[in-house]
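Box 3.1 A note on notation
Throughout this textbook, protein chains are presented in two layers. The first layer is the amino acid sequence; the second is a token string describing backbone geometry. Keep the layers aligned when reading.
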Amino acid sequence: MTTDLLSDLLNLVRARCRLSGRLVAGGSWGRRFANLDAVKFCAGVEGTCWYFMEGMTSPAQFERGDILITNGSRPLVLASAPHLIADAITTPLAQDDNGDYRLGHGEDFVMLGGMVEIDDRHQPLLLGGLPPLIHVSGAHREAESLGWLLEQIVREMKPPTRPGWPIVLAELAQLLFVQTLRAFVMQSSKSGGGWLRALGDRRLAPTLAAMHADPRRAWNLEDLAQEAGMSRTSFVVHFREVMGVPPLTYLTNWRMHLAKRELRAGAPVAEVAESIGYTSESAFSHAFKRVTGTAPGRYRKTLDEERSERERGTSEIEASAAF
């Protein structure tokens, strides 16, 4: 494992950003994006519109170079003017001959849309650290690289396409997502809670990095508070305020996420227990069942059954296609 919290989390949940297409809008229009339970992003390419989400005091402008990320907990509304937000439509959008999604008439506003694919087993881990809405302004100094990435994406999407363009687009989209999270942390570290806020917390970031770098160590509160440069009491209060759970609970939960990954890879239970700091298999099994609701052996058996079922289905499809 690395000592970088963001890298650890994104790698563990297998977060991959995927472009969905371009939205082109003009005239008077409003659109409510109500499909939930997914991390999505919008990147302003041309023009300006307004956006609103429940919990905001008033609509805000979404401009060229800006990035919005939603965690799928609330609908996002985009409109050409604030007064059109209340009556924004939710009907499916039609694609034109170029594959663009259209709203209204004209091309006053253009944006790129996409979603972040996540391993279902770890989805709560990522979503729990993201606020309902992230807005990174393209004018902010930390967002300078975002403008360059957007330019490259737009360039790759224009015909004629160049060799390797799907791979290049996928990697650029991934970079856009990660750079947006980084820029948000740097420009608004006190927004929301969970691990995203902790990334910008000068006291908690070193502590989390230490836990992630050495999850098998027998950490105690004194050790963790020392990493943060705080007293034990102040550290515990501050950690819980930001992360939503006590420090040692976070450590246990992180260990169990690592354990799930190793069990999926086929590692023996005893080996997994040792790798994350448990001195006995029974102690690990008790902790794993307490956190996940199932014993590690049962968890791996279920995974094996699911894998066999998928392989059986794949074989049947291949057999039917061959004849």
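The chain has two domains: 5-188, 196-300. The first helix runs from residue 5 to 12.
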